[in-house]
Amino acid sequence: MTSMRWLALPAALALLNGCTPSTSAAPGDKDTAAIAQGARELVQRVNDESYERQRESGAAGWVAATYINDDSQLLAAKSQERDLAYQADILAEARRYTDAKVDKNTRRAFDLMLKGNTVLPPARADDQAELTRLSASLEAHYGSAKACADPAKPETCRDLIELSRVLAESRDPAALRQAWIDWHNTASEQKQDFQRFAELMNVGARQYGFKDTGDLWRARYDMSGEDFALETERLWSQVQPLYTSLQCYVRTRLNQHYGDTEVAKTGLIPAHLLGNMWQQDWSAIYPLVEPYPGVASLDVTGGLKKASYDAVKLTRQAEGFYTSLGMPSLPQSFWQKSMLTKPADREVQCHASAWDIDMKGDVRIKMCIEADEESLRTIYHELGHVYYYLAYNDLPPLFQNGANDGFHEAIGDTVLLSLTPGYLAQIGLIEAPQQSDEALINAQMKLALEKIAFLPFGKLIDQWRWGVFDGSIAPDRYNSSWWELKARYQGVQPPVARGEEFFDAAAKYHVPANTPYTRYFLAHVLQFQLHRELCRASGQQGPLHTCSIFDNKKAGEKFWAMLGKGASQPWQQTIKEFSGSDKMDADAVIEYFKPLSVWLEKQNQGQHCGW
Ligand code: X8Z
Ligand code: ZN
Prior knowledge:
Elements: H1 13-18, H2 29-66, H3 70-95, H4 104-115, H5 125-144, E1 147-148, E2 157-158, H6 160-169, H7 173-185, H8 191-207, H9 213-218, H10 225-258, E3 269-270, H11 286-289, H12 300-306, H13 311-324, H14 332-337, E4 353-356, E5 363-366, H15 373-392, H16 405-416, H17 421-426, H18 437-470, H19 478-490, E6 492-493, H20 518-538, H21 553-564, H22 571-579, H23 587-592, H24 594-603
Parallel strand pairs: 3-6
Antiparallel strand pairs: 1-2, 4-5
The site of L-captopril has 6 residues, from helix 15.
């Protein structure tokens, strides 16, 4: 999760190092062998040093995220600066081996050392220092941002949690609009810093032969960056018709609820009406668009409140699902060191994250848990990261990573697809579900508001950043380009005019935190593929949407084996071993939502869908 994660890559190297047989000598072989030996030693050194380095940057990052203040920011920036300098030294040494003949694991380790980075060091020490200062400051600003009617009076301030609650629960258009505007305005002053930060990252990326930072970010998928961009287009084209159908239906229902003055019958949906600050998850407006009102309650939040769930009980509940698959219990240190609730006495970064502090099992999550359905889902998501860490902790640090970053984001979500209405009823969170077509459509609608609504958002954030990095989106068009992409992909528009004095992209965590976002788009495709395979392994027949792998050790074993491979081989090989196919593909998404897509087609008859 930290941007310096590459230091924490593979572990299989101890093994590799000892196992390359020396073959019969030919002239010149001695040099070749010595070079190969040097390459292996460098990889070994990086692996050996990773634990301590990761422990230090992990500690600095953890404190900066759980005690936001000037001191912790300074320490995090300094630690990142040391990492960048170290990285520059190692990559300079690694350059000597660019054309060396080495075994495939050593080559892979070198590849990951370079391409596994979100940031590459600019050559000048001053630039490195400025870059890490900006990085720490952008992230801290997001974490502590508040909208205040009167800045002198703290009681008039609202933070992201409060503003998000308004977006999810209020049905008053004026209140919704104000909450949306208040949060987005907190990001405006970040524009200069972000612009400079992007420039410095590009300086680093270019130093190592990449066209720009976007080129670097696309290079990590075991295929060319160009092919990767085409792959994301292909996946998007598979799901786009279903998204368009959903947008159309939701627009109609919102129009019926709010009237023509708030939502037109055609065109874009105003951003403040979709139940979420960024319109990435529309499930909060389920009550407004429920296909068959009153059929089968899916009120998980109500169930959690009734059963007095708190942060620990929720986390234990999620852990229980993973252990039911045969995975280990969380270590004691997880419970001692995690931050599960929002502390009252200090600023913290509430955006949830999962950490592997030392690459040896000091795993934690940092979250501001509330007793609601969204928190339940997020804990499952975060524990997916944690179980991935635990599964590959024995690999050499350079290989301690996801098959690709989309896999890392998909694990917890895959498990969540097994939280079917049947399972939720079994654990007492909702009433026993009715077995009817109406109940099925209701359940599919609720999930589609989360999963299908997310897809265009998952794609557009990096579409925007790739443009910023390659210069096609200049700073004087940051905001207009953002809203062009929001319109093109999501079919949404801002509730009020947003000129270049605003910087709305930075109102989303991953922009100031510099976390690449295509991973979530991939994860939303992959999780259905993984779910389908695990269901097959569990021996269940019947439609995909009825399958739950809860308590199924066969599925768990298959899952755990895949997780244990980490990044030790190309993701194509990992998914091929897992599913028989070496591609990411959205056909499982389409299969899963077949009943809903047929239903939506009918509902949308007579509407002008699209925008
Ligand atoms: O950032 C996250 C996780 C941490 S990796 C909470 N997610 C994305 C988001 O919130 O925007 C999970 C879903 C998408
Ligand atoms: Zn995640």
